[in-house]
């Protein structure tokens, strides 16, 4: 009868847990997510400002129609009772003309003497107000004592409107803050991109840093010699 040799039982199979990620791996993962979301937000506004920037930069080469405005001037009789302050006049014009922008640069110039031939006259007080938007602007002028207000209106064409949008002319504080988010996203993308490159290419970082410092030193010596 054959003898079966004794074999000890095998140790139970166990799965080793994966090693805990290092701090560098966690930082790279977090930076990549942040870089992607910031890039997505920057792409939305960058499409608008990039296209208008190209049009503005190449308007002469592409022969794009220049920024133009159709101007018109009217004289509007004052209501009864007449406004007593420049601010009241601006609010009355906004309501009566149904202007969307809020009045800006509301000013009052005091009366002053002016020379007229060999006579000395006193120029009456002058009120002015402006209503500016990307599509156009309205300028109001009133000399105290007149029975009317002179209103000049300028309606911009499409290219002028796009130019004002790009520059933020006539836009509210919300638009300015929105554009600031685009500038901030570009800065964050630059910083996060450099940090990501440094974390994933550690060997080349030292060489590039030494090269950049060398270039700065050479540039400093050249400027000092000039």
Protein model, in words:
By secondary structure, the protein is α+β, with helices and mostly antiparallel strands. Helices cover 48% and strands 22% of the residues. It has five helices and seven strands. Strands 1-7-6-5-2 form a five-stranded antiparallel sheet. Strands 3-4 form a two-stranded antiparallel ribbon. The N and C termini lie far apart (105 Å).
Give the helix/strand class: alpha+beta
Walk across the major sheet and give the strand order: 1-7-6-5-2
Question: What order do the SSEs take from the amino end to the carboxyl end, as H and E?
Answer: HEHEEEEEEHHH
Major pleated sheet:
5 strands, antiparallel
Number of helices: 5
Principal-axis shape equals elongated
Rg is 34 Å
Strand content range:
15-25%
Average pLDDT, rounded to a whole number, is: 76
User: Low-confidence segments, ≥5 residues, pLDDT <50?
Assistant: none
Number of beta strands = 7
Share of helix, binned: 40-55%
N→C terminal distance: 105 Å
